[in-house]
Design goal:
292 residues; mainly alpha; MetI-like fold; 79% helix; 0% strand; disordered C terminus
Length: 292
Amino acid sequence: MSVAQTRRKPPRVGDQPVFRRSLIAVVLILAGLLILAPLIVIAVEALSKGWQVYVAAIVHPDTVSAIILTVVTALIAVPVNTVFGIAAAWAITKFDFWGKRLLLVVIEIPFSVSPIVAGVAYLFVYGLQGILGPTLEDYGIKILFAVPGIILASMFVTAPFVARELIPLMQAQGRDLEEAATSLGASGWRTFFAITLPNIKWALLYGVVLCNARVMGEFGAVSVVSGNIRGETNTLPLHIELLYHDYQAAGAFAVASILAIIAVFTIIAKVALERQGAGRARAAVNSAEKAS
């Protein structure tokens, strides 16, 4: 054996303990400053004046109204975007048609447009000076500065979440199973519920969780179209802003703690769904290896 063969290779940068530990330390410090510190501040400030002030802020009629409006918006926007995401992902990954790339671009638009710009666009469409505003006014239909406008804005900013989770997975799965089912005489609906849906359910739930979290925390687009009417068109983020501007810092942090709790549960659900999906993927690989 030659000297060149016995000579050890120099360690890579990533294998050096000092570099690895330093990188981990930087990540942990940044995570603490950017993620954990704000959550701790919210908890401390929310309880800074005692439990009575905290509970009073939560059960205040304006807060309860904001909670109800936020939940109603999520109950409408999330199912609609779920259906849209499934339909868009199924069409893009299982069929060939003219305009497929255009549909992909359209799905990405809410991510590339500022939510405030989206809210202003709704003003130009449904406002009194907008394209459809005068017609809607003649028929007594109110979109902006009312619940329908909040729901539409929330649906716009969260439209891509489910589709973006499903499209890569369904592209990787291919079309073989669906084509086999169709060749055996299965209808489109039966093929979807018997084959497609079981294979995408964990990614679907993951997208739904993210979509729900974004709906409840949306501020920019909703602030433009809601009118900020206290007790009527204020969602939780808007109500927090009003409380803070009214110098009710403890109340603002108390209401903010609700969104913080939702965020924590969202992270827990996200991790659980990722583990479930990864576990099912490993099981499928093992089954395929045994079969071969």
